[in-house]
Amino acid sequence: MSKRYSRLVTGILVVSLLFNVFFVGAYLKTRKNFKRLKTPEGRVELIAGRLDLSEEQKDILSEKLKNLRRMRKELKKNNRAEIEAFWQEIAKDNPDPQKLKELLRSSLTSRQEFTLSAIESLKSFLQTLSPSQRQVYVKFMRKKMGF
User: Given this model, what pLDDT does residue 119 score?
Assistant: First the structure.
């Protein structure tokens, strides 16, 4: 085996090893971020890190998200009967279109009220941010939500 060939093989192995090290590092970082996203506190920490939030801003964000979770839970609880009635009606051989509309209307009205409250909460949180933090947050949320 020539010296040149030996260097080539060594070089390829070194490059391969570097790719593996970078891959494992990226995997571990991504895994850590996903674990953080599983808890409300972790989500707040992730957002706080990206936006460089002060402790006060972080507390406000945490409180807003806590309120949204509570409101979402109440919405689900309050709409449970209508949703169940909707599925029972639609499963019938001849579902009543008028009844389906009424059930949907009721559920959509409370969902709309929740959405409007969530928007107000978001607006009040955004007012605590600097313009640059606001831009980063909006970009982050748009990417997360897909629009």
Answer: 92
pLDDT digits (tens, 9 = 90+) for 101-137: 998 888 888 899 999 999 999 999 999 999 999 999 8
Residue 97 burial by Cβ neighbours in a 10 Å radius (0-12, 13-18, 19+): exposed
Are 49 and 20 a contacting pair, CB within 8 Å? no
Kindly give, in sequence order, each residue whose CB lies less than 8 Å from that of residue 43, ignoring residues fewer than 6 positions away: 36, 37, 65
114 within 8 A of 71, measured Cβ to Cβ: yes
Based on the number of CB atoms within 10 Å of its own CB, is 26 exposed (0-12), middle (13-18) or buried (19 or more)? exposed
Is the per-residue pLDDT at 1 higher than 70?
no
Evaluate if pTM is beyond 0.90.
Answer: no
Residue 147 has pLDDT above 70, yes or no: no
Mapping DSSP onto H, E and C, the string for 94-132 reads CCCHHHHHHHHHHHHHHHHHHHHHHHHHHHHHHCCCCHH
Q: In this structure, what token pair is assigned to residue 69? A: 């979770």
Kindly give, in sequence order, each residue whose CB lies less than 8 Å from that of residue 10, ignoring residues fewer than 6 positions away. none
Contact, 137 vs 43, CB < 8 A?
Answer: no
